[in-house]
TrEMBL record:
The protein's name: SREBP regulating gene protein
Principal localisation: Golgi
Signal peptide: 1-32
InterPro entries assigned to the protein according to its UniProt record, in alphabetical order: SPRING1
Provenance organism: Urochloa decumbens
Keyword Transmembrane helix attached: yes
Keywords: Glycoprotein, Golgi apparatus, Membrane, Signal, Transmembrane, Transmembrane helix
Family statement: Belongs to the SPRING family.
Topology of the protein relative to the lipid bilayer: Single-pass membrane protein
Length: 278
C-alpha cells in the first residue's frame, strides 16, 4: 500500500495558497454604509393659513389654496414674487391680507434690521420679531386701527404693513393710513367732537383721537400760528381761537399729554376741536 502523506501535503499547500490569496483580495474592512452620500433636505415653507381662497408663503409668492404644494407648503414660483396687487404703496396698505404679506416681504419695502428692533406688542415684557415673515403676518392682520365703531372697516385698504418710526415723516405716513375712511373735521368754537360729527350725520370715532393728537397732524389741518403745546384739557386736540384771552395763548395748538384721557365729549368755549368722524 502506497504512503498517502505526500498527497495530504499537496492538499495542505493548495489550501494555504488559496487562503493567502483570499486575504489579499479582502485586506480592508468591508462597510455596508456609504458615508459619502449626502441626503438633500426637503424645502419647506411657512405660509399664511387663514385665507379661504389665497395663501402667501414666506418666499413672497401668493397662490390659491388649492395650488399650494401639500408636502412643502410652498406656492408655485410661476407667479410674481413680492406682489403688491391691490395695494396703495404710498400708504403701504392693501385690500387683501395675502397680498399685504407678499408686498411686505419685499426687502426694498421692509428692512429686516428695522423689524428686529420692534416689539411684538405694547407691554414692556413683549418680545421682538425673529424674522420679517412673522412681522408681516402680524402687521397685516386687522387691528383696532382698521375699524370704526368696532364693527365696520375704515376703508377697503385695511391691511397695512408700515414700520412705525419716531421720525415726523413716518408718523405722518402712518397716521394717514389710520385715517382711511375717516373725515377729519375742524369744529367751531365751543363744540365737542360728538356734536361736530352729529351735525354731519356721522359719529365721532374715539379710537382715532390719538391719531389726531400730534403736532404734525394739528399743523396739517390748523394754522397753529402761535406754536404747538401739550396740555391736559378734555377739549384736545384743538386750536385756541384768536379771540381768546391773552392768558390762553390765542392761535396755539394743544394736544393731550395722555392719550387715555381723550374723549369725544370735551369742549371749551375758546378752542376749536380737531375731530375724527365716520
Amino acid at each position: 500500500m502506497s504512503d498517502p502523506r505526500p498527497l495530504l501535503r499537496r492538499i495542505l499547500r493548495l489550501a494555504t495558497a488559496f487562503a493567502v490569496a483570499a486575504c489579499a483580495c479582502f485586506s480592508g474592512p468591508v462597510s455596508g454604509i456609504r458615508k459619502d452620500i449626502g441626503f438633500i433636505e426637503p424645502i419647506m415653507c411657512r405660509s399664511t393659513v387663514q385665507g379661504r381662497h389665497l395663501i402667501s408663503d414666506d418666499n413672497g409668492y401668493v397662490c390659491s389654496a388649492l395650488s399650494i404644494n401639500p408636502w412643502s407648503y410652498c406656492c408655485p414660483t410661476t407667479g410674481d414674487r413680492f406682489s403688491c396687487q391691490g395695494c396703495k404703496l404710498d400708504l403701504q396698505c392693501c385690500n387683501s391680507y395675502e397680498y399685504c404679506v407678499s408686498c411686505c416681504l419685499n426687502p426694498s419695502k421692509t428692512k429686516k434690521e428695522d423689524v428686529l428692533k420692534l416689539k411684538v406688542a405694547k407691554p414692556v415684557t413683549a418680545g421682538t420679531y425673529t424674522n420679517v415673515f412673522d412681522f408681516c403676518m402680524g402687521r397685516c392682520r386687522h387691528s383696532s386701527a382698521s375699524v370704526v365703531h368696532e364693527n365696520a372697516y375704515a376703508g377697503d385698504f385695511h391691511h397695512c404693513f408700515s414700520v412705525q418710526q419716531n421720525s415726523s415723516g413716518s408718523v405722518e405716513s402712518s397716521s394717514v393710513s389710520k385715517l382711511l375712511g375717516i373725515n377729519v373735521i375742524v369744529g367751531r368754537p365751543g363744540e365737542s367732537c360728538s356734536l361736530v360729527c352729529k351735525v354731519r350725520g356721522q359719529s365721532c370715532v374715539p379710537s382715532r383721537l390719538s391719531v389726531l393728537n400730534k403736532c404734525e397732524i394739528l399743523q396739517k389741518y390748523m394754522r397753529c400760528k402761535s406754536g404747538c403745546f401739550r396740555s391736559l384739557g378734555p377739549d384736545q386736540p384743538a386750536e385756541v381761537v384768536d379771540e381768546a384771552p391773552t392768558s390762553l395763548n390765542p392761535g396755539a395748538c394743544l394736544y393731550m399729554q395722555m392719550d387715555e384721557r381723550l374723549t369725544c365729549d370735551g369742549s371749551h368755549q375758546h378752542t376749536r376741536r380737531l375731530c375724527p368722524c365716520a
